[in-house]
Each structure stands twice: as C-alpha cells, then as structure tokens.
Amino acid sequence: MLVLTRKINESIIIGDDVKVTVVEIKGEQVKLGISAPKRISVHREEVYLEIQKENQKAAETMVGIEELNAMWSKKTK
C-alpha cells in the first residue's frame, strides 16, 4: 500500500483519469473530492462490497435456458 500525506486542497492523481483531492479535514474525518470519467465507478468500500455480494447472489440464482423452458412448459399445461 502506498501511503501519502496531503493537506487541504492538495491532490493525488491515479492513472491519467482520476484525481483525488483533500477537500476538508474535521477531527478524525477527511472529506475527499474525486474527479473521474463517468465510465469509472467510484464507491465507498462498504457500498462496493454490498454491490459485489448482491451480484454474486444474482449470478448464483441465474436459471439456464433449459430450466426456463421446463418452467414455461409446466405453466402452459
């Protein structure tokens, strides 16, 4: 892990497209501003992990075409 020290209004650049700026420091909280292209999603870690968990659950419940056909034929009988 790279650890950097920054002051208010100082930034770091990630790749060519992402800029992270320290906007405010209040007690133990640091407010960051993130500039990134729309094609790059930016989430807090806990939100990202929840999205990943929901995506995994959705992938596990996906039904194959054969199963869909079987369910459909049961319904139409």
From TrEMBL:
Signal peptide span per the entry?
none
Q: Function, please?
A: A translational regulator that binds mRNA to regulate translation initiation and/or mRNA stability. Usually binds in the 5'-UTR at or near the Shine-Dalgarno sequence preventing ribosome-binding, thus repressing translation. Its main target seems to be the major flagellin gene, while its function is anatagonized by FliW.
The upper taxonomy is: Bacteria, Bacillati, Bacillota, Capillibacterium
Protein origin, superkingdom: Bacteria
Q: Which InterPro entries does the entry link to? A: CsrA (IPR003751), CsrA_sf (IPR036107)
Q: Where in the cell is it found?
A: Cytoplasm
Q: What is this protein called?
A: Translational regulator CsrA
Provide the primary localization: cytoplasm
GO MF term (any one): mRNA 5'-UTR binding
Q: Which family does it belong to?
A: Belongs to the CsrA/RsmA family.
